[in-house]
Amino acid sequence: MKEIKEKAEYCLNCKNKPCSIKGCPMQTKIPEFITEVKNENFKKAYDILQENNICSYICSIVCPQEEQCEGSCIRGIKSNPTSIGELEKFVNEWAIENNYESKLTKLESNGKRIAIIGSGPAGLECASQLLQNGYEVDIYEKDEIPGGILVYGIPDFRLSKNIVNKVIKTLEDLGANFITNKELGKDISLKELSDKYDAVFLGIGAAKSSTYNLSENELKNVYKSDVFLRAYSEKTFLKDLGTVVVIGGGNVAMDSARVAVRMGAKKVKILYRRDREHMPAREIELEEAIEDGVEFKELTRVISANEIDGNIKTVNCIKTVIMQGKAIDEPGAEEFEEEANTIVFAIGLKPDKTLIESQGIELDDWGYIRIDEDGKTNISNVYAGGDNTESKSTVCRALAAGRKAAKGIMKNLA
Asked: How many domains, the chain?
């Protein structure tokens, strides 16, 4: 407790609040909640966090605070920033340990019905805002368990499913109706829902993993990161992994590597074409992967795979260098081999262009859903937000996108 108080006292309580206004996509009232921690009024601190963001606990765990709130902290200019993420996590854990819950207020029903497709962060926050403002909300989810990426894409050793379940329960208490095992394009259509509801929010995220060809022949044991992580999440562990090579350098690559360790891989290596300084993964995620026994080989590009009857034996690689921020093959470098039996691609996710366009939604030049300042698509009562509308989205940015769309819906239905 003494250490927490000291970390709270370190906050300058800036009037301009760059940590909130500039750094946090959800514009969390950071100095305000930290002030309550200073005063040991943890109930009030928790109320402040919950009233702004029912996924506050999740954000305290998975958000890249060093880039967002802490990255904008005035203290960080000449010294270390305030430990905002740690303080937020402390308040949420205090509430659980002390069985304290905030009671969210809810306006009377206005009779308007909204359909939300996808129960990931964007969908959950959109639902939260609408429910609290008197709208009836049905949330359609293609999987059996709601939560989207929070359940199937972030391993439980990083984010406990109990934390996600608590958010789902909060929304159910507000009146949310979760309709599971309903997939867009198969079980439901956008036209069907837009005709039935006053508005529809599309929050299906980026569902297509990026890959590239490693051989002219068909290879066994080549996985996309989302499939690999889902196998772990559903406890359908993949067998005979042998030596696993994860291609990529983001947080998903770290998660995939750590999952491979837990699924019994003989050895796990992350091969990444950039160096550590230019790696998108959070430093803490890399360090935890290394602690789990994962080998990290930077400045290494995987070119192709060598196989016998489809079974991978090695991958051909080449060393790279960073030139003007870009990774290029090292001039004069010779190819070399790395042992590998299983490959996991963790080099990014993209929206499912075919699915989205089949529903009549327009995409921009980069393949993301085109939306206006209210989150509205080209279809008058259909909105979108999250990974399907922008690249390199974080959980917190997806939450903010869901909130923006909810405000757009309420404005246009007023």
From this structure: 3
